[in-house]
Amino acid sequence: MSKQYETVIGLEVHIELATKTKIFCGCSTEFGSAPNTHTCPVCTGMPGSLPVLNKQVVEYAMALGLAANCKITQVCKFDRKNYFYPDNPQNYQISQLYLPIARDGYVEIDTQTGKKKVRIHEMHMEEDAGKLVHDEWDDTSLVDYNRSGVPLVEIVSEPDMRSADEVIAYLEKLRMIAQYLGVSDCKLQEGSMRADVNLSVREAGSETFGTRTEMKNLNSFKAIAHAIEGERQRQIELLEEGKEVIQETRRWDDNKEHSYAMRSKEDAQDYRYFPEPDLVPIVISDEWIAKIKARQPELRPEKLERYKKEFDIPEYDAELITESKKVADLFEATVELCGKPKKAANWIMGDTFRLMKEKGMEPEDLKFSPEHLAKLIDMTDAGTISAAVARKVFEQIFTDDVDPEKYVEENGLKTVNDEGAIKEAVEKVLADNPQAVADYKGGKQKAFGALMGQSMRALKGKADPAAVTKMIKEMLEQ
Amino acid sequence: MEILELTALELGKKIKAGEITVKEAVQAAIDRAKEAEPVINSYVTLDEAGAFAQAEEIQKKIDAGELTGPLAGVPVAIKDNMCIKGQLTTCSSKILSNFKPAYTAEAVENLKKAGVVIIGKTNMDEFAMGSTTETSYYGPTRNPHNTAHVPGGSSGGSCAAVAAGECFGALGSDTGGSIRQPSSFCGVVGLKPTYGTVSRYGLVAYGSSLDQIGPITKDVSDCAAFLEAIASHDPKDSTSIDRDDYDFTSALENNVKGLKIGIPKDYMGDGLDPEVRKAVLRAAKVLEENGAVVETFNLGLVKYAIPAYYTIASAEASSNLERFDGVKYGYRTEEYEGLHNMYKKTRSEGFGPEVKRRIMLGSFVLSSGYYDAYYLKALRTKALIKKEFDKAFEYYDIILGPAAPTTAPELGKSLSDPLKMYLGDIYTISVNLAGLPGMTVPAGKDENGLPIGMQLIGNAFEEKTLIRAAYTYECATGKQYETMADISKAAEKEVR
Amino acid sequence: MANKISDETIEYVGILAKLELSDTEKEAAKADMEKMLDYIDTLNELDTSGIEPMSHVFPVNNVFREDVVTNGDGREETLANAPQRKEDTFEVPRTIG
């Protein structure tokens, strides 16, 4: 490759809002239910049904808009986007084109070369489509409308990103904001956060944009990174061969690591938008905006500062913990209960993160309760259990959210404080290891460690190490 | 025959008094329908068994004193574009020929609360697109006053059923005149309320920003009673309006003293049948003689209402009718290759020519490159038309004119030239664009015995003013134009 | 002013509207549409500059519902009219290759 190319990327990110009900009807948004259970005439496009807007959707969208420094559109409306597809029961999607809820914002991301602003063109509210499952055997598709009408906010960025890393940083930032606001859980695997990537390449230094393509069907950060790399290569190859990039929508197949054009004669991509006559305008007063602003929860930068001050934990710890709202909430609740921030932080950054990594879990998948972690910390501090036992118990808390008190009781893991039992065990170890005893007495401090280890093992780790140390020393000096 | 001569309110009173049972009332209507249907074809579905079952239940409630309203026990018919749970709701289209909704339209629900018996679903122009009830998949409805003529449309089945005594009142829907024009052709009273007065929930949409459900009745008092029963603020319809007044029957007052009535010059000019003009002017005179002040005036932009309307209504219809695709309900073509072929064949076989015509036009005016020139232009024109009405109502209480330029045309004479047919909507259409209430009252007959209706148009939320004027007119004329059609004679005329 | 609708346009609108017209229907549709558009073009006689397009005729706004689940299992009613049902889903021709 002789020329240098720059990749120009803009994103359309869909975030499913965490409302209890759908955007235009009283059906539940619960994920993973049996097909078509959460449906009604409205979200299945039955003739004569009419949409009524869920107020919470507007407030969540406003919260997102404000957090991303957008201007709220104070008279905003819905429009119909017309296209035929079986997952779209009315064959039009109620969305916003002409007067979207929020415009002209930005978020700041960290890049290798420092902080960077990614501008947000607009955010709009819309309804999600149903789910299609393909039946290979019968050559048919099966439609489930449970997801039809689940509220979405689509966030359209300006073409401000230049690499997959920046795209991932931007997505992580949006996800963090949404999670902090409590407006979405943003689970990529469940489709509650999805991204379409608009990508073009141009010769480095060029001021004009190249022809862009849009890639859909990207449901993991990995897929997004792969798709960006794949599409960038494809476009550069075309240009190098003197061919043109065609403006089109492409579908990324993560298994084949290849994108292919979605266009067919039947997809005219002429959506015939017009104002939705079944819904009335939304008029947003200054007071309403102020109310939403006042309700905005503490976002990450403020939380970070507060943790350092209030809990006196190192910056590094605070950064790791506040990366996810879920983890931060868990941490704070634990500290609230046990009053030991550094210890709570250690449990989270140590064993919690290790187990999450081992099990391939996201923070949202954490299900243990702060009560149990706080109790574990208290029990360890009180010497009720040893540090070694505590780590074992924590694994049980992590996976099954067991009550550590009960678990320790039921499995007989309490520290042995019975001096007689300790003495008996130490006596036996000393008697069995005359060489080590002699070495220690001869000035080899190291030998003490071996005696200590064996004693603890004999006591099955349940004894307080301090008490065992004391006992060994006493007996050796006899 | 005696029962059939009664108005809905008269019948309701006799049922309440125990002089007539609900079953007898239903029997009378069903018998009449069975006699009339072979010639008139007002109904898509006549639900005899269901009607008698309802009659029994309602009679019990009346006897127990649980149902005391003025319409309790009265047999009525519903236009077949309003959903009734578990009952066929076809919109007179092949594409919905097997559709049974799981919900009932709010207006119908309200009427049921008033204790009426629903005896059937009436024929209409397919998806309410048409002015003659000839575009129905179930064949045309005929005018009970003369079966060689159409009943008008699109609520032709409802109007014919009321005119022929096949029910004591009916619901219609009006997007561009679909209640008022057939009411005029059939000699019955029809009212399109202010947009937002009656819930559209469960009404299969044609032009969402224009559609309103309204009553079709034998006389003005029934009209007020039906409107009072169906109007409500419905949280399921975002465009439903919470009004201050729903007591429409309180407007049944024989008094128009001082009422200012304006007749638009453009409503009485070229293209208006002389007999219709004569009848309308005579009706205006009656109101004047009763104390109203009647003047002619210039209402601007009359001729722009039709092009604006067909742009807006077709655009909305093209989108509203996208849902009929053979996936979730209704007709699906027998053989197809792949998804898009299934869509196209289903829709091409399922829709009739007039519906396809409007879907094509609507899709075109919304398509890329034409939206501004056509759709937005029409919405701007709508704003101007609304302004013209606002100006007129600063001075007048009522605008009076014909409901249609002619009496009912003969069957088979209208569909060959759609544009000409659309021009027949000239007096009704702007009322929908401006969201205003409009009412048709029988005001005469032409030399062939076909009814002529006058239209009263009110300012937004002024249904009561219309009802008062119509009632006064009715009192003054002794209901002479509101006689039930003699169907035996109607058919004879055709044979001749 | 007379509008001319080409074969391509009718074909294109047919794709948008998912209607398949026979050749005779296409010719009729062309003629109808040309006539209607000529008629609609009379709106150009009106000066509408500075006029806001009016989609809603009355100034009603902010109609909302609260975020409360009101609907239960709607499966049977939803699927009751399905032209082709497979278990608890709607069956359609395969959507992607």
UniProtKB/TrEMBL annotation, chain C:
Keywords: ATP-binding, Ligase, Nucleotide-binding, Protein biosynthesis, Transferase. It catalyses: L-glutamyl-tRNA(Gln) + L-glutamine + ATP + H2O = L-glutaminyl-tRNA(Gln) + L-glutamate + ADP + phosphate + H(+); L-aspartyl-tRNA(Asn) + L-glutamine + ATP + H2O = L-asparaginyl-tRNA(Asn) + L-glutamate + ADP + phosphate + 2 H(+). One of its GO terms (molecular function) is glutaminyl-tRNA synthase (glutamine-hydrolyzing) activity. One of its GO terms (biological process) is regulation of translational fidelity. Pfam families: GatC. Belongs to the GatC family. Heterotrimer of A, B and C subunits. This is Aspartyl/glutamyl-tRNA(Asn/Gln) amidotransferase subunit C. It comes from Mediterraneibacter catenae.
